[in-house]
Amino acid sequence: MARYPLGQPVRVPTTVKQQNVDGTFTLVNATTLTLLVKLAQADGTQAVTGTYASPTNDSTGTYHQDIPVTDLTTTGHYQYTWTATGTGAGVSLGEFDVFDPFETAILPLQDAKDALNIPQATTTSDTEIASYIATIKANLEKATGGPLVNKAITERSEMLSGQTVIPVRQRPLVSVTSIASASGGAIDISGGLDLDTNAGLIRRKLGLPFYGPFFTWLPQVNVTYVAGWGTSVPPTFNTFARIVLAHLWTSQRGPAALPMGGGEMVTVPGFGFAIPNMAAELLDGSFGGVPFLAQAYV
Questions:
Q1: Cβ proximity of 8 and 68 under 8 Å
Q2: Residue 161 clears pLDDT 90, i.e. is over it
Q3: 90-99 and 2-5 beta bridge pairing
Q4: CA-to-CA separations, 47 to 39, 52, 58, 265, in angstroms, rounded
Q5: Which tens digits make up the pLDDT trace of 3-44?
Q6: Sorting pLDDT into bands at 50, 70 and 90, what band is 214?
Q7: Any idea where the domains of the chain sit in the sequence?
Q8: Can you say whether residue 76 is alpha, beta or left, with left for phi > 0 and alpha for psi between -120 and 50 degrees?
Q9: Structure confidence at residue 210 (pLDDT)
Q10: Measured distance CA(88)–CA(283) in Å, rounded
Q11: What is the pairing mode between strands 10-15 and 76-85?
């Protein structure tokens, strides 16, 4: 999946072909050619962000359209279709993601290219490498149980009368900003909280309950908290990403590109694919006393 930073125009190319009587195809210029771009919405629908009916004709049957940044103002998943009519009639399609350029990368593109011994001036595979890095990050966050760098999170929790513990879903738990009722009230946490960083559990001081029959607001609360491994990616995660990236890179380029002797592959909970054992061993440790793998506290 191609990924582009927010604020950058995106060039979308296409070719138009016409089938010959002998079954072969010939590049032709379409009578009309239109690019339609849509953005996936939170409610499951799609919104049109741009329609372009005058793409640049680079050569016979070869076109491109530069989607302006004014039509790519939101991060998310975009899909598009090229529709040709008349000569070369048909539809082709594609998709790409737009991401926040300030999101913390587990492995910066420059470091990734160094790890793969690719010159910085060579940009041919930048999109592919960025996609691998995003995949590694997503899988690692599933394995560790939360964001790799400190992030503010809001979750809904159901309170019971006399409840003394509120669990949160992402770890490590760093701090709690607020606990507010869905109906508008708030729990006073100014007296301090007792946090179980590893397990992601929130308690009041002295073991006092969060909710009791004397409260008049609804028991559903929104807990806003910070989870993560610090303000920068821990070095272990960076090294882990380099090893897994090298594996993904060579595995897509045939046996000749694989290192001599290969290497033992293992499955780590949370990952959707096997990874080199050397990388998995890095996750056996801890950072600040918190085990890297989420399963360590289950």
A1: no
A2: no
A3: parallel
A4: 5, 15, 29, 42
A5: 899 999 999 999 999 999 999 999 999 999 999 999 999 999
A6: very low
A7: 2-99, 109-146+232-297, 151-227
A8: left
A9: 79
A10: 53
A11: unpaired
Q: Which two tokens stand for residue 1?
A: 């999946």
Q: Which residue's entry shows tokens 């599933």? A: 142
The first and second tokens of residue 267, run together, are 């499955």
DSSP at 211: B
CATH topology of domain 2-99: Immunoglobulin-like (2.60.40)
CA dihedral 2, 266, 283, 1 (to 10 degrees): 0
CA torsion angle 49 53 56 57 (round to 10): 140
Task: State residue 261's pLDDT score.
Answer: 40
Assign residue 192 a region (left: φ > 0; alpha: ψ between -120 and 50; beta: otherwise): left
In this predicted structure, what is the pLDDT of residue 30? 97
Residue type, 80: Y
Report yes or no: 107 and 235 within 8 Å, Cβ to Cβ. no
Residue type present at position 57 = N
The candidate with the shortest Cα–Cα distance to 30, out of 60, 6, 75, 5, is 60
Instruction: Read off the tokens for 121.
Output: 């001036």
